[in-house]
Structure formats: structure tokens, C-alpha cells
Amino acid sequence: MAGFVVHLLLIVALVFVTWKYLRLREMTSGEGLPDLACLQGLSSLLDTAEGYAAPHAATMAAEAEALGRRLGLAEPTLLSLRLAALVHDAGQINLPRDLFKKPGPLTAEEWFLVRTHPLIGELALRQALPALSDVPALVRWHHERWDGTGYPDRLLATEIPLPARILAVADAAAAMAQPRPYRPARSAREIAEELGRQAGLQFDPEVVQAWVAQHGG
Amino acid sequence: MSALLRFQPSWILESLPPGQVDSVFLPLAPRASTLFWFKRLGLRLYANDPVESRALLLRALLQNQGETFSPENLRKFNQTLRKPIPLTMNPFRSWEGRPFDRVQLDYLFYWREAALEIPESVQRDLFWAAVFEVMACWIGLARTGRPPPLAPDELMGFMLERQREQVFAGTEPVYALHLPLVELGEEVEASVFLLPLIIAEKGRPEQDLELLFHAWFRGGGDLVAARSEIEAARRGWIQKWDGPPAYPEMLRKVGQAKFAVITWSGGDVPPRLHEEIIAEPFRRAFATVFPTSTLHVRAACRETDEYDFLLVMRRG
Which of A181, B26, B48, B274 has the fewest CB atoms within 10 Å around its CB? Predict the structure, then answer.
């Protein structure tokens, strides 16, 4: 019963988030910031369902924006980046919760389901957004890997648009900075080491370099 | 050479009527791993590439029904090099610093020789495929000057081990073909004729993974020759801004397909131009067989004005 209520709340939240986003797009200026703050609050609902103690999506959005600025992205792209970060895992609410909390390894079928969550998130956003908005695409590709083994499309290197590559690093860094039931929060140095190990494999080396520079490396 | 293409299999399937697609024919297949989605969903696949170095990746990773690189072969063919190999012996020596360093060049030479010694064809294909992935990693890191995360033999071992998570047995047959486009049989029957369209583009050769891998596979460092070979293999099937591909030749390959789907990506040029220069001529050329069509456009990145396109044409 509790699970059903959580699902229902999350679905209501996603619909609300999408509606808010639509309104935000119409504004496309600083006037939209109160809505962005609202979106941020709503995204924390998703974070709670994911088991994060602190707002993960908001931290990720801040990380992504800082990285985007360092890498020279223009303001409209930074706005897309922030918005995509706030709703990046919205597609997970349509999948069984147990899937993301399973202690053991996932079966091939379960992995296939997990790989659909960026698509579900993208689909929900596309239904609500103008056809040529880039936010759904960023949600679709935030789990792509630089080495072409990510999902859903297995894009390789620069086939993945730069903002999506930034989201991937920001997502990982923000997740590592938080404590999880199975490990303590990692320090900036530990995060830099881990990102460095994955540069050229999971992450774009240039974005990793930007993250390290951003955090005083 | 390897122009930008974001191949999105789920988008392609979404755009086709449910229940009407059981097989896909790709005369010029995209990178092997991008087709895993179709294979996982149980579609019968015919994936062709006229370029041998690319066709072997299709065989290794897509057609392969779950075979992985054996521990015996790993021990035998992925050794640690103790001494540098004289550069004069190395056919890839002109690549030093562009983009590979001296140690990487030694390994590229050694791995090619080792690959030729592997007797089993699937094992050999898997080994080639792992070198492709190692090269991709090195090229990416060379852009920033970051050192690789692992020593070359460790990285190679890692890539071979990772293939265990990639290759899998499908429920329907997958055929990786390596045929010249002119010889490609019209008898290949599939419900969808799918062409990921390559737009002619000449980037920096030392950053072009496809080009470097092809030259390495052929055993020479001459990137100009490698480029000529690839271009010759694809002649007539490349989209240029100043000239269309050979539509009649393409149309001859559609067989009895119910749908012809063309997908491509582009940046820096407004979507309207893609519609006028690429989509409309395709529509007109295919209209005799596929009279109805829909063009789908999606934004990929507003920073660089990148869009992805999907032209779906239906048989009349």
C-alpha cells in the first residue's frame, strides 16, 4: 500500500514538473527562476525515492551548471542543463522500485528494463515540450558512456552532445559526494581520483579535467 | 570520414507501426553495439558493411551468439612487452605523437601480429574488436593529454573482459555481411530497409577512430590510403551537400521491405536545409515504391545546433 502511495505521489510530481517546465520554457529568462526553484523542490521527491539523504538532483544541477560555465556553454544551454539535471531520473518512477534497490546483480531482463528509464523520462518530456527542445535529449543520454558502452543508444565519444557528457560527470560526482547505506560520502580528492580512473572510459576526459579544475585540483 | 551519426534504435522502432517489424536490413550498418537494441528485441538482422575493418566488428560483437575471448588466448596473445620494439620495424611509426605515444605504438604493432596468430576466427574478431576499443580510449585521452587509466596490456585485458557484458545470444538470427554495395543481394528480405546516412565530412585524420582502425587493420600507417579505401567502398552511398547519393542504386536494394527508413544527424545547418537538401530528394526518389512518408526531427544540442532526423517511408 505504501509503495502504491509513493508511486502515485511520484507520478503526480512528474506531471507537475513537466507542466512547470513548459511554463519555464515560455519565459526563457531570469523571470523563470522562481519556477526553477519550484522544480528543484519537486525533484527532491524523486531523490527521496532513490534513497538519497540530501537533494541529489539539485546538487547535480549546480555541478552541471558550474561545469557548463567552465566549458564555455551559452546561457540557453546552461538552462537546459539545469532543467535536465533536475528531472534526469524521472523515468525511473515507471519502473519497479525493487529494481533499483536489488542487492545482487541484475539479470539480463532486469538490465534491459533499467536501460529503458532514460527513454521513459525522455518520452514524458517530449509529450509536453516543443519538438525542438533539447532537454528530453539530455535526459535520454545522461547514461551514455564516452567509450560507447552506455545506454540507451551506445553513443560513442563526441556523438554524445557535450551537455549530456557534463550531466554524466555531474551525476556521478554528486552521487559520490553523498553517503549511501553501503559507504560513506567521498571527499573531493577521492571523487577526482575515481573520475580520473574513468576518464576516457565512462567519462569525457575534458569534462573530467574541468571537474578537477573546478574543485581546485 | 566518420561523420556524426547518433543512431537511435528505440526512436526508429517507435516511429514504425507496432507488430509490423520482424526484421531489419542495413546495407551500411552503423557501429555494431548500436544494434544490440534490435537484437535484444528479437529482430532478425542483416547488417552489412563493405569496409572489412567495420564488418569484423559486426561479426565479433553482433553476430556472435555469446562467445567470449578465452582465458588461454588471453594469456597467450596479450602479453606485457618488456622491451621496446625498434621503431623502424613498426609500420605505424608515422603515428608517433599523432595521436599515439611510443609505448602505444609498440602495442599496436604487437597486437596486430598477435591477432594474425589466433587460429579461431571468432576469437580473432573479438581480439580485433578489443583493439578498436583501446584505440578509442587512447584517442579520447590524447585530446586532453591525460594518461591512460591502465597500462596497455591491462587496458586490452579489461576490454576483452568487458566483452562478456556485451555479447549475447539473440533469439533470432543475426547476419553480419561484408559485401560490396554493388553486389549486395536484392534477395535479402526484411520488413525494414534501414539506412543510417553518412554525410561526407573530412575531419582531422589523427582523431578519426574509424580511419585509424582501418589503417591499423590493413597493416599500414598511411591514412590517406585508408581513407581512399573506405570512400571507394561507400561510393555512391554518401550524402554530400553538393551532390546526392545514388538513389536508384539504393532503391534496387529495398527488396519487398514495407518501410524504408533513413536516419542522419547534423549540426551547424538549420533543420530546414536538411529537409530541403536531404529529405525531399529522398522522398521524391523513393516515391514510386514508398509514396507516403514522414520526417521526424529532434533537437540534440542547442549549443551546437545539432539535430537528428528520421525519414520514414511506407510502401504503397
Answer: A181
Q: In Å, how far are A57, A58, A60, A88, B136 from A172, measured between CA atoms?
A: 11, 13, 8, 13, 22
What is the number of other CB atoms lying within 10 angstroms of the CB of residue B307?
23
| pLDDT in the model for residue A24 | 55
Q: What is the pLDDT of residue A77?
A: 94
Cell of B13: 522502432
A-B CB pairs within 8 A amount to: 109
**Looking at this protein, which amino acid is placed at residue A148?**
G
CATH number at residue A37: 1.10.3210.10
A128: domain range? 2-214
Rounded to whole angstroms, the Cα distance separating B91 from B181 reads 30
Average pLDDT (B30-40) is 95
**ipTM metric:** 0.92
Q: Do B33 and A148 touch (CB under 8 A)?
A: yes
A208 touches chain B (CB under 8 A): yes
Beta bridge partners of B301: B306
DSSP-assigned letter for residue B222: -
Q: How far is A206 from chain B (nearest CA, A)?
A: 6
SS3 B308: strand
**How far is Cα A142 from Cα A60, in angstroms, rounded to an integer?**
12
Contacts of A190 (CB under 8 A, 6+ apart): A176
- Considering the four listed CATH numbers 3.40.50.150, 3.30.200.20, 1.10.3720.10, 3.40.50.1000, the one that applies to the domain covering B9-56+173-200+240-314 is 3.40.50.150
At A51 the pLDDT is 63
Residue in this structure with the C-alpha cell 542495413, named with its chain if needed: B26
Q: What DSSP character marks residue A187?
A: P
| Domain tally, chain A | 1
Choose among A156, B265, B61, B16: nearest CA to B24.
Answer: B16
**Crossing angle (nearest 10°) for helices A33-50 and A56-70:** 130
Phi-psi region of B236 (alpha: psi -120 to 50; beta: other; left: phi over 0): left
Q: Which residue of A has its CA nearest to B141?
A: A200
What amino acid occupies position A200? G
Q: Are B300 and B307 in contact (CB under 8 A)?
A: yes
Which residues are CB-contacts of B279 (< 8 A; sequence separation ≥ 6)? B262, B295, B309, B311
What is the rounded CA–CA span in Å between residue B238 and residue B27?
Answer: 12
Contact check, Cβ <8 Å, B140/A205: yes
Hey, where are the domains in chain B? 9-56+173-200+240-314, 71-166
For the segment A128-172, what is each residue's pLDDT rounded down to a tens digit? 766 668 999 999 999 999 999 999 999 999 999 999 999 999 999
The Cβ of residue B225 has, within 10 Å, a number of other Cβ atoms equal to 13
* Residue B239 phi, psi dihedral angles, 5° rounding: -85, 125
Cα distance between residue B284 and residue B141, in whole Å: 44
Cβ–Cβ under 8 Å, residues B180 and B233: yes
β-pair type (B174-177, B238-239): unpaired
